Amino acid sequence: MGLTEYKRKRRFGVTPEPAGGAARPRRKKALAYVIQKHRASRLHYDFRLEWNGVLLSWAVPKGPSLDPSVKRLAMQTEDHPLEYAEFEGIIPAGEYGGGTVMIWDRGTWTPESPDVDAALRKGELKLTLHGEKLSGSWVLVRTRSYPGAGGAGRPTWLLIKHRDDAATGEDIADTAPRSVVSKRLLAEIAFQEGGDVAKAASGDPEAALRKLIRDPAAVTAQKRRRKPSVWKSSRARS
Ligand code: MN
Questions:
Q1: Spacing, Cα 57 to ligand 1 middle (Å)
Q2: Domain range list for the chain
Q3: How far is the CA of 15 from the centre of ligand 1 (A)?
């Protein structure tokens, strides 16, 4: 797909998201994997896999499930630049995807399908995740493509956990709601970075929020010299 659509949808003078250069060839051996929890107009989890120099992306409204009997809807979205995996912060209201973004999980992935491009064309990609929250064997299965006219023109996939040692009935979206990078909840990211706290909080589990309200001193400390999550491009913009 490339990054044309990604760039067309965003105003990089306004949003702190990375502008991205061209799709980059692989420089390291391991392929990046990231899930960004995103409280936009609706809460969803953006599941991203590095492939061919970009992040292939799917929006998973309910987030991943560790239960192999649960199939989670995953709507394919535009490819994102590799730098996007580092982005946690606020997309300004009114911009595309406006809301709070959290790095919910990250790590690397390994294809189980021998030919990834063929698997993507066929609509069945088997993979192993090596994340901080998610691991083991998974599959993405394409269900159908929307007819172009009127629809979003987006292929619909299902994200399913395979049966293995990492499969459980645990609701990981509920039990592990914090950023793997900053350990913050969505509400804390919004509060510390000038986002819409109430809207962000509506994406956090109630139990975690209640704990914070009972003991506001427990708010995750903002590191004094933390790198700003606003991503600044050093590249000239096209
Ligand atoms: Mn999103």
A1: 9
A2: 4-224
A3: 14
